[in-house]
């Protein structure tokens, strides 16, 4: 009985230590910053909106446009 108790307690301690390490890693990690648009001085918001694709806008009923071959 003592052997099983010792094995269960050591397994619990090992699982607790691994869980604590994983939780600590998740809490201390900072994600890298993401740049979604160019921030150069030559590109303004107006030029970004003008270059946006307008050939296949989402219709009001929510149906996605089919892809045309070619």
Which secondary structure elements does this structure contain, and how are they paired or packed?
Elements: H1 2-28, H2 45-50
Summary keywords:
mainly alpha, elongated, 70 residues
Sheet with the most strands? none
Total beta strands: 0
Helix tally?
2
Helix content: 40-55%
User: What class do helices, strands and sheet pairing give?
Assistant: mainly alpha
Head-to-tail CA distance between termini: 74 Å
Point out poorly predicted stretches.
none
What is the residue-averaged pLDDT? 77
Radius of gyration: 28 Å
Strand content: under 5%
N-to-C order of helices and strands: HH
Task: Tell me the overall shape.
Answer: elongated
Describe the structure.
The chain is mainly α. The protein is 47% helix and 0% strand.
What is this entry, summarized?
The chain is mostly helical and 70 residues long. It has helices at residues 2-28, 45-50.
């Amino acid at each position: 009985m003592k052997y099983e108790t010792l094995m269960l307690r050591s397994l619990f301690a090992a699982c607790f230590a691994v869980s604590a390490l994983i939780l600590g890693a998740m809490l201390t990690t900072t994600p890298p910053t993401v740049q979604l648009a160019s921030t150069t001085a030559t590109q303004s918001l107006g030029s970004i909106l003008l270059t946006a694709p307008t050939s296949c806008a989402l219709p009001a009923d929510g149906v996605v446009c089919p892809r045309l071959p070619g």
